[in-house]
Amino acid sequence: MKIGHFLRTESIFLNVDLPDKDAVIRFAADMFAQHGVVKNSASIYAGLKSREEILSTGIGNGIGIPHTDSAEATNAALLLLRLAKPIDFGALDALPVDVVLAVVVPDNNSVLHLQMLAGISRLCRKTDFLKAVREAETPRSLLLKINELEG
């Protein structure tokens, strides 16, 4: 699955200044609500927060992938954030996170959920992807690069 299919320039945020993981989760929940993915940012926040309490979604190499499902979501959605300063995310490798890909999928669609996480994982293993995210000047240029990397 190609994650570029789920990204729009307005869902890419560069140099977001957030102090901690909770602020990142709150920002993601608010943006999902603002973009009409869900009506209630509080429910998405609770879902993302609950998932983080099970095990950090900081997968290493400066990447965090907070994700949840929602009965309100009719379509899967993705946000990409490049943080202005790396933050502690409780990542598996103990390194701070500066790249966040937040995911919401419709409730009871575990196949799509796993496909999206697998697609993100494949893309994150490409060193050119992380370089592109960390060096992008605009959301548009980053989205073009992502689509190019995914072929």
Main attributes of the structure:
5 helices, 6-stranded mixed sheet, alpha/beta, globular, 151 residues
The number of strands is 6
Segments where pLDDT lies below 50 for 5+ residues? Answer: none
Which structural class should the secondary elements be placed in?
alpha/beta
Can you count the helices? 5
Oligomer: single chain
| Radius of gyration over all CA atoms, rounded | 14 Å
Describe the model:
- With 151 residues, this protein is an alpha/beta fold.
- The chain has helices at 21-34, 41-54, 110-124, 127-135, 139-150, and strands at residues 12-16, 58-60, 63-64, 67-70, 77-87, 97-106.
- The termini are close together.
Write the layout of secondary structure elements.
Elements: E1 12-16, H1 21-34, H2 41-54, E2 58-60, E3 63-64, E4 67-70, E5 77-87, E6 97-106, H3 110-124, H4 127-135, H5 139-150
Parallel strand pairs: 1-5, 3-6, 4-6
Antiparallel strand pairs: 2-3, 5-6
Helix pairs in contact: 1-2, 4-5
Concise synopsis of the structure shown:
This protein is α/β, with parallel strands linked by helices and 151 residues long. It contains five helices and six strands, in the order βααβββββααα.
